[in-house]
Amino acid sequence: MSEGQPDSRGPCDICGNDAVYKGNPNRLMRDCPRCGTYEFRSDVANGLPVEWLKNKAPQHFVTLSGWIRDQNDAGTEFVAITPDVLRRVSQMRLPGLRDRAARALVAIATKYPSVESSWTLRGLAEDLELQARSYSADAASAWVVMCLLIEEGYLRNHGGGGGISVRGLLEVESLERATSDSAQGFVAMSFHDNLRDAWINGFDPAIRAVGFNPLRLDNKDYVGGISDQIIAEIRHSRFAIADYTDQINGVYFEAGFALGLGLTVIPTCQADQFDNLHFDIRHLNTLKWHEPSDLAENLARRIRAIIGTGPFYMETER
After folding, report:
1. In sequence order, what are the residues at sequence separation of 6 or more whose Cβ sits closer than 8 angstroms to the Cβ of residue 26?
2. CATH number, domain with residue 216
């Protein structure tokens, strides 16, 4: 495809549903009703963007589809899919049933925000976008999620028709408030010894200075899947710091996961490594730091400006 060529249609490379093809020879872009918007880069995929997708297990499309939707929700249009991204996403465990139900409930409330809205429950289960957001493989899998929401009283069921209940709306409000009330700031960064001082005298004191509790987890490996503890702690955080010094792939992944949850992610990088940032994030307002002392001061200022102060702010100022 070349610049200016009209959009065409074809099967989504991930889920196989009919998708819109956009782009040019270097950016193979897709707009899929299930997966959302994503792209391949021919310089990364060696001109064969789907070959490394074909070698993955069928269930991996469910995780990848849901993950792309998470990134789209966070404002990333046309998520870049590379072999490394595919490898890490395929290592993620599928969310549990209750987590999937919570995702579906938020998606339903977003699409149908009024208790007066009504639809067929079967039709809702067949909604491709909802299937992706709830990490469901198909309509049958999504229907199980619907049944749980009905059983919990979050959805109304009247002879095959339904709608969100008042209890469901209150639950969505509670889910959104749980993150906003958190006192934790999650830090994704390299654990190499050369950054130990940056953690002790930079990230840690900066986060504490504005009244939040800093947390990082020294889990370097993703054998068997991304750490459940990392996922849980990101979910329970108010915001995340992603320090791209040393170009650790896990930092990119954890930042993407946090963005998918709707968390604010503040990017940082040691100044002399800024030119090594991946091209997809170079446009971000990344905080460059030289020494732990200026990192502590400038990061605290940025957290305060973007997030505000945390529940322990007055205590730290005494």
Report:
1. 41, 42, 43
2. 3.40.50.450
Do residues 151 and 81 share a domain?
A: no
How many domains, the chain?
Answer: 3
Q: Are residues 65 and 151 in the same domain?
A: no
Rounded to whole angstroms, the Cα distance separating 24 from 16 reads 21
Report the candidate in 241, 285, 245, 283 with the shortest Cα–Cα distance to residue 264.
Answer: 241
Helices (H), 112-160: 121-125, 128-133, 139-151
Query: Is residue 152 a part of any domain in this protein?
Result: yes
My answer on whether 24 and 116 are in the same domain is no
294: enclosing H helix or E strand: helix 292-306
| Residues 10-20 pLDDT 10s | 999 889 899 99
**What is this structure's pTM?**
0.63
Length of the chain: 318
pLDDT score recorded for residue 37: 93
Residue-number span of the structural domain to which 105 is assigned: 97-178
Burial readout 198-232 (b: 16 or more C-beta within 10 A, e: otherwise): bbeebbbbbbbbbbbbbbbbeeeebeeebbeebbe
Strand, helix or coil for residue 155:
strand
